[in-house]
């Protein structure tokens, strides 16, 4: 495996429609050995207004600024490349999903899967390491 043996660091998240970098997500490990991620930067797309607040979020996250918004939490390392048992927030619809993450062998990409009941029927995205 490459120099980065875990999911900590800065990751590029891509827009589903344009395929362009949408945000930079910083994943860190907490004292309890779980992982969480927050939006560190929203990447402006020419001609497309970007939301500055999570207007679709509910509860205390409603209208929370996008910068610093925690979108990933509770992830636990299952083995060398797999992380499970966490949750992920989709700021586009304000919904929270169960989450699993698979780190590539070279440590450069993540397959992030959000799902309701079963991971094999969830939606996956590929994030690329930014550092």
Structure overview:
With 131 residues, the protein is mainly beta. The chain has one domain: Lipocalin. The protein has no helices and eight strands. Strands 1-2-3-4-5-6-7-8 form an eight-stranded antiparallel β-barrel. A hairpin with a 4-residue loop joins β4 and β5 (82-90). The protein is globular and about 40 Å long.
Structure, briefly:
The chain has strands at residues 9-14, 21-29, 34-42, 70-77, 82-90, 95-103, 109-115, 123-129. It is mainly β and 131 residues long. The chain has an eight-stranded antiparallel barrel.
Biggest β-sheet description: 8 strands, antiparallel, barrel
CATH architecture: Beta Barrel
Class of secondary structure makeup: mainly beta
Strand order of the largest sheet: 1-2-3-4-5-6-7-8
CATH class category label: Mainly Beta
Radius of gyration: 14 Å
Count of spatially separate domains: 1
Organism: Novimethylophilus kurashikiensis
Protein name: DUF2147 domain-containing protein
InterPro entries: DUF2147
Domain DUF2147: 9-129
Topology at a glance:
Layout: E1 9-14, E2 21-29, E3 34-42, E4 70-77, E5 82-90, E6 95-103, E7 109-115, E8 123-129
Antiparallel strand pairs: 1-2, 1-8, 2-3, 3-4, 4-5, 5-6, 6-7, 7-8
């Amino acid at each position: 495996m490459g120099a980065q043996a875990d999911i900590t660091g800065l990751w590029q998240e891509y827009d589903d429609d344009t395929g362009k970098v949408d945000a930079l997500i910083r994943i860190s490990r907490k004292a309890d050995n779980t992982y969480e991620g927050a939006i560190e930067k929203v990447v402006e797309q020419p001609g497309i207004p970007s939301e500055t607040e999570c207007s679709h979020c509910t509860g205390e996250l409603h209208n929370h600024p996008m910068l610093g918004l925690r979108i990933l939490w509770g992830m636990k390392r299952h083995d060398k490349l797999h992380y499970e048992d966490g949750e992920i927030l989709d700021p586009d619809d304000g919904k929270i999903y169960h989450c699993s993450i698979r780190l590539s062998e070279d440590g450069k990409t993540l397959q992030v899967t959000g799902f309701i009941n079963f991971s094999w029927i969830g939606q996956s995205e590929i994030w690329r390491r930014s550092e």
